Amino acid sequence: MSEDASLHADVAEILLTEDEIQAKVRALGAQIGADYAGRPLTLVSVLKGSLPFMADLMRAIELPVRIDLMEVSSYGGSATESSGLVRILKDLSASIADEDVLIVEDIIDTGLTLNYLVRYLRGKAPASLRICTLLDKPARRLVEIPVDYTGFTIPDQFVVGYGLDYGELYRNLRYVGVLKPEVYSEVAGG
Known about the structure:
About 25% of the residues lie in helices and about 30% in strands. By secondary structure, the chain is an alpha/beta fold. Helix 1 crosses helix 2. The radius of gyration is 17 Å and the shape is globular.
């Protein structure tokens, strides 16, 4: 991003508008509320990207919810791709044993990081463990991941906004947009 350019100028197209996202979040919240009716639910957000989605989703679920946060890092890959080698930078703050747990993700592409996280969390003996993702990018999937709640299935494009970043920027956009290739290839290309 050039110093004088706005974040919006780096977006080639808006893939999902703020209104489309909010309508989908409300629908997901209603479905999750119905599926877990009468049972408390623990939402686990994977920082940092899923934070806006989780904040909106938890307000759309009409159940007692507890939240917890994890931060994981995939290392060894390029700036735009995950290697699947995962380090846990921040673990859960409380036990999830015997609780219904819903992992809240911003995007699933290769599935490598989430696959690791699911195995890790299953080792903590939750009563149930399911996955909710705002965005699913199946064209890039390397590991099969059973996703229980999907907001949108998107094409294989580099997207930013609504929590998704490139170089820690663009997370604050209220929509999901396709980043112009020249923005992320400037760094990769030298």
